[in-house]
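job 3f2a | input accepted
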Amino acid sequence: MPISAEKLVVLSAWASRLIAAFAMIYSLRILSTTLLPGEYAMFIILVGLIGWFALSDGGIGYAVQNAVTKKLSTGQSADQEIVCAYSMLLLISTAIVGVLFGFREKIAELLFGKIASVTSELGAATFMQSAIVFVAGAAATLSTKILYSMHRGYVANTASAISAGVGVLFLIAGITSAVDKVAYAVLALYGPAALIGCALGAFQIFKALRSRPTLRITVATALLKSSKGFFVFYLLAAAVLQIDYLVMSQKVSESTEIIQYYSLAKVFTLISFFNQAILFAAWPQMTAQYTSGAFSEIKAMLCRMVIVSASITLLATFVILVVRSFLAGIIVPNTSIEFRPEIIAGFGALALMRCLTDPFAIFLQSIGRMSPLIVCVVMQALLGAGLQWYLSETLGIGGILLALVVAFAATAAWALPYSVNRTLTRTT
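job 3f2a | predicted structure (428 res):
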């Protein structure tokens, strides 16, 4: 891929993330002043499930991304893979929505049982409406992965920026008059991305169908075989990174603590946006480099990504610590919530751990080598979940962050770099 194209993807991703960040910060301000603490806690718990709903694509999205990249790098058509992937996702998404509808009341009771202001009927209805948006959004991300595999990530980034801006406008326009404010907030903030993703997907399907591809069972089988590793890995990764809000729903009774955790998590998400922009732009390039045997270039790229992302994270954490009072006044105005230094430091340490592990995880995914990732994340999930449940009892949200950092340090922080180095050395 030409260097100019790679830079365009990264720069457009950064611009998109900045727009999304401003939209996110402003939306947090609106939510904190419009929703009651119990409603805001309910919203946060629902949004915390997005990582789990992302699994509803069964890993097919990443399998297709690698398949399309390889096909295009050899001058072949990937229309069969594209049409087949969308067909499978339609069936999977429909089945998931049906299952969730059947268990909506029990799930709502489990998630919102500790929030006194939420009735069982309201909880079930809000959960189901949110679930439909999240499932549709997860399926629609396939369009983004296909764009990245075609080195057109800048299109996906533009769509992301537009959806973020539109979402905030919808939130401003109707949140105060909405009957179910939580459901409306979810629909306003996450509905546009799902809708735009579906529109991009429809365009990709139409374009692929023009060549009249034959849907062969071998194509579907190959995609399913490749997707299994991604699905297992991201399922276990969700057990590591997405279990925190589930733990909070059971262990943290103070809504203000949940709001503080969520607000700071979103601030640090901005930092990860910049780092992830580099990583996902590099994914197809690393796939091509590994195929061509450019192992020294891969090592140099991984080293640069670690240094750059770690530097950004350390600087950003320091700035957040300095301006924490000012930041709290912007994000959660007219509340008694304070951004405590130890919580900020915990998020900073966790973000730094991600800087030391994510580049190596992305490389292993780019070549379809999932076994080391799965083994590592199993150990991390078991250790992290147990520590979160135990430490949150006495340390609250600080205990959850401490558990996550310890789990990363004991597993992925050393295991993934070791595995990548061994892979490149053996291949050489």
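job 3f2a | The radius of gyration is 21 Å.
job 3f2a | closed
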